[in-house]
Specification:
Radius of gyration: 18 Å
Structural class: mainly alpha
Number of strands: 0
Strand content: under 5%
Mean pLDDT: 92
Shape: elongated
Helix content: over 70%
Order of helices and strands: HHHH
Largest sheet: none
């Protein structure tokens, strides 16, 4: 399976509740992709490995495609006869998918910074590395908790 392929089918729109559940599932999957990118970014800031920087760029492209596909599908879902609560959920999905994609953009920006550090033969002090590592760990944990929350939403719908 192509990691960047959006797994949403227009035929599911005939049953909006299933389409909504599937959209949330895709959002969660996108979150897992970006969480992997965050982990890679944490490491690349210290190691500055070019192949890892390139992988982050590839993952950012995947996140862009997922964001576009999920957003387009959610907009179609929002045009259906769904109740107010479901409209609010779709609005949340649109915002969250945009936020996840923005995190992916930040990862790419950090990887570009790491590339610049490598080109300039610069590095962080040991104290700075530890503090960056702690900060990144907190960010990754917060992101993971948010994704786990939405994963539990999907399970409750089943």
């Amino acid at each position: 399976m192509d990691e960047g392929q959006v797994l949403l089918d227009d035929r599911m729109l005939e049953t909006p509740s299933i389409a909504l559940q599937s959209t949330v599932s895709e959002m969660v999957r996108m979150g897992h992709v970006v969480r992997g990118t965050m982990n890679r970014t944490r490491d690349v800031l210290i190691t500055k490995k070019r192949e890892e920087i390139e992988k982050i760029r590839e993952e950012e492209t995947i996140a862009d495609g997922l964001c576009k596909g999920i957003t387009e599908y959610a907009i179609k879902l929002n045009t259906l006869s769904i109740n107010e609560k479901e409209h609010q959920e779709v609005a949340s999905i649109l915002q969250i998918v945009s936020d996840i994609e923005r995190v992916s953009d930040y990862c790419e920006n950090i990887s570009e910074f790491a590339e610049n550090l490598k080109d300039q033969k610069a590095s962080f002090s040991e104290i700075a590395r530890e503090e960056i590592q702690q900060m990144e760990d907190v960010c990754i944990d917060c992101f993971r908790y948010a994704i786990e929350h939405w994963k539990s939403v999907v399970k409750k719908r089943r």
